[in-house]
Amino acid sequence: MKQNLQIDPERLWDEIMETSKIGGTPKGGINRLTLTDLDRQVRDWFKQKAEGLGCIVTVDDMGAMFARRPGQRKDVPPIAMGSHLDTQPTGGKFDGVLGVLGALEALRTLHEAGYETFAPIEVVNWTNEEGARFAPAMVSSGVFAGAFEHDWASSRKDPDGITFAEALEKIGYRGPEKCGEHPLSGFFELHIEQGPLLEAEGKEIGVVTGIQGIRWFEVTVTGQDAHSGTTPMPRRRNALLSATGIVEKVNAIALAHAPLAVGTVGLMQVRPNSPNVVPGEVFFTVDLRHPEAKTLDAMESELRAAITNACKPQNLESKVSKILDQPPVHFDQDCIGCVREAAKNSGYSMRDIVSGAGHDAGYVSRVAPASMIFVPCHNGISHNEAEFTSKEQCAAGAQVLLQAVLNYDRKLAERHGSKR
Ligand code: HGY
Ligand code: MN
Ligand code: MN
Fold it and tell me: Are residues 182 and 239 in the same domain?
């Protein structure tokens, strides 16, 4: 039942621009942290749009939203597509947003054409993909896939000590459905590449075959608060001094495993953070990534050794907890094939690519066949207010998403002995 279904580039672009105003920043980015009132506003917007297309919207107890369009078979789990609507504090207009709004546009195209799919189709908005307010990242898709315990994730605190559960309750998006009790036949995520490869090679579509491994650590280094004027240097137990040594070492560990390893200290809290107090405690995060688990193991043990060695000279204590450990992801070959066929039939240039950034599809792929579609972003810039992907590139991604889901729907129908 092939029809030449085309998404509407103008409508998609208009909605990306419209929703970017919810938490829009003067520099043209978005600051819409998860489970804030701004997140509530964009969730309400998404729910209203999806219900306007006749979808039934359900929410689980991690706040993940599922907008379902019925298919021919009610007994077959839906094919889902989606991403996240929360952003970094200095996020761009496209990270996550393109994946949810591109999916909404694909579903609307089916709706307007009166096209009946074999399986139900769903658009998903995952909660707290970024991990910027409540670490770690991809937390609701992680609970969905059984990578994180629901209670552990719900108890994660933001810098003000508010728990995920309290914030979710406050915006009224703690749904009745138990997170994870929502079978899917497949999952496709459209996302900007957030790196420079597609643009550098002039490729329009990235056929994402996997995601590199990611590990996040929370580190606390403890010395002793002391007066900056009266405490002789040899008597100090300066936590910040050791912490800066560890920051240097994180960089060195990544460089030692070049060219693919990356290592970042992105968040640091110096306590008590006063000009005339020798810092007695420093809390910071470490983000290590590499496509191979073995190398990540080596990087992790080098990190732990670096922390111990940095604390020794001043006899400081250290506490290291690993809060995210997503092994390298290899997506489903059938889903990858559906993306490749969709890009080819839509006439786009493409290349296979492994994602440097983490995505919800990474965890979802543990419980359903999944893959991703990338489109370029200008100069590879992301997690930055200057993030930019053009209207044409957004449209290309949404068109390939639509066709990939339809390809997969046909595959599913064949598996059920029904010809489409
Ligand atoms: O951390 C990541 O890669 C994603 O942006 N949450
Ligand atoms: Mn993202
Ligand atoms: Mn992101």
Answer: no
